[in-house]
Amino acid sequence: MNRTDRLYALVEELRAVSPRPRSARWLAARFEVSSRTIERDIGALQEAGVPIWAEPGRTGGYVVDRARTLPPVNLTAAEAVAMAVALHRLAGTPFAGPGATALRKLVAVLPPADAVEAHRLAGRVHLVGDGPATPVPAVVADAVAARRVLRIRYADRDGTGSLRDVEPLGYLGNTRHWYLVAWCRLRDELRCFRTDRIRSVQALPDVVSREFRPDDLDIPRVRVRALSLV
């Protein structure tokens, strides 16, 4: 069992027996790790906002507040990332801290595979400044998660249209616009397509195998950052 799976399973184990405690030794035997590993895992969960505390004594151990934790959450990876983008807009407000804590709690109780996919998808979203508030076409919004090639009709700044097949790799947002970062098969290079200039979209059956590397963007690293779920 990897660490992500174990963290999720630890919360569920403690929820199942709450308000009774589970000792570090019992949990270590249950998950076939050392007591020290369990203590580190519990510390990580506490830092993420999961309400776990230790009860002292011979019969003590770790307890989770069942009333303040969630059962397995059926959020999709895209929904978790959508929440992260929305919370990014709270920066500088009194709600930024509580919002970030709420998101960490949700991600902490996602099924392991969904949590891994959510972090992977978040790593493909990059923001410059505060990020944009403009809408993105639904097919384009789904493209990076779906890993499917798109056939788009695109208009450049002069309004000249072109039809091209692109491999969606990620998103880039500045204060005014969203861009689809994709490998353009017509130009045989990485391009950024402003989403409000995409006139039509058709999803193709081809699967995208390339990975998004932020270093490929012609933007100083100090100005661009990946979206984070933590």
From TrEMBL:
<dbReference type="Pfam" id="PF08279">
    <property type="entry name" value="HTH_11"/>
</dbReference>
<protein>
    <submittedName>
        <fullName>Predicted DNA-binding transcriptional regulator YafY, contains an HTH and WYL domains</fullName>
    </submittedName>
</protein>
<dbReference type="Pfam" id="PF13280">
    <property type="entry name" value="WYL"/>
</dbReference>
<dbReference type="InterPro" id="IPR036388">
    <property type="entry name" value="WH-like_DNA-bd_sf"/>
</dbReference>
<dbReference type="InterPro" id="IPR026881">
    <property type="entry name" value="WYL_dom"/>
</dbReference>
<keyword id="KW-0238">DNA-binding</keyword>
<dbReference type="InterPro" id="IPR036390">
    <property type="entry name" value="WH_DNA-bd_sf"/>
</dbReference>
<dbReference type="GO" id="GO:0003677">
    <property type="term" value="F:DNA binding"/>
</dbReference>
<dbReference type="InterPro" id="IPR013196">
    <property type="entry name" value="HTH_11"/>
</dbReference>
<feature type="domain" description="Helix-turn-helix type 11">
    <location>
        <begin position="6"/>
        <end position="62"/>
    </location>
</feature>
<dbReference type="InterPro" id="IPR051534">
    <property type="entry name" value="CBASS_pafABC_assoc_protein"/>
</dbReference>
<feature type="domain" description="WYL">
    <location>
        <begin position="138"/>
        <end position="202"/>
    </location>
</feature>
